[in-house]
Write a structure and sequence with these properties.
single chain, 2 domains, six-stranded antiparallel β-sheet, alpha+beta, Beta-Lactamase, globular, Phosphatase 2c, domain 1, 421 residues
Length: 421
Amino acid sequence: MGRCGVVDGGDAARWLQLNAPRGGPDELSLLVSRAAPAVGATEMVVYLADYTQSSLVPLLGPGLTRDELVIETTLAGRAFTSLEVQRAPDRPDRLWVPLLLGCERLGVLEVVSPEAGGSALERPAWEVAVNVAQLLVNRRLYGDVVERIRRRLPMQVAAEIVWGLLPPLTFATDDLVITAILEPCYDVGGDIFDYALNGDVLSVGLFDTCGHGIKASAMASLVVSAYRNARRTGLDLVDTATSIDRWVRSEHPGTFATALLAELDRRTGLLRIINAGHPGAMLLRDGKAIRALPGPTMLPLGLGNLSERRPRVHEEALHPGDRILAYTDGITDARGDNGERFGLDRLVDFVERALNDRLPSPETMRRLVRAVLAYQQDQLDDDATALFLEWQPPHLPLSHLERLTGSDGRERPGPVAASGV
């Protein structure tokens, strides 16, 4: 407890940072518990979201007992989904704080304290939670405790390969948010995505490889590695697509991968896309899906030898606040008991309702996949992946405003789509 009864989280945060490197990941729970008195708490317990993001699982040390909590029906789950601190009216001695690294949701921190009912503890608890999230990410690489806690079922090797290659599911800056979700978590093989922000350009790749199981995940590994290699070599979008296509033909002849390759200039909102035989992406504005972006601009990756045309790039001038929804066919092709597909209309309706409910983007993606799973009785026939990209610049250069509206203030149409193979 700080002076004049003011709780200060700085000491606890600094203590955690100084002492974490001295222990392994298995000691994180004990370390967090030992930091509790520094913020006037009697206990602090870490809960991690499982891979399906349906449960919060306690990371327990000696002397602690806690039950697994369901995200949909608990206050801890509400803290996770809303990204806001939650208090229980019937338990004034505790509060739940989201564990966030940037916008990546890891779980929640339970703080038990006689001060939990007031507002004095909220900021210190946030400080501690931010540091705990950093420690979880930094220290989990040195052991398996975090991975074991998050897994409620055995993970297949194909899924192990894919999850080991994925970037964080959510990334955000002041003007960008990108978030994605992937199912089935324990047996995924063919879907994979990647992104990178270099200067003012955000590069995004969403891939769906041919087949299932270990062969599909091996191909996914090659595709995303070839994508990263081309990007880091400095190739433009067309040459990147061409390079991946050649690698697929070389190492997996007779197979293919569909893909969306995109680059967004975050200064101007200019989005450039190559669609390699992939389901289209949707452009959403003011909470509504206004149109699908053009379909294939090249053949699927691995079939480039069947066409003499170079990949074509579609350009779209985004408006501030625009969102792009991309997905693999495992979303729209999911079938209910009556054989009816989940379909694009149902997908668009779901996302529009989520936007109107002002859900955080990661929560929109989580609920979308839960809805797809429920529609198919939790038995997906194919990988289901969705990706959400939002552009919300705090300031726009005048030249871009002029390009969008013109000098007379009227909206101008975007660039003509480049389509066809």
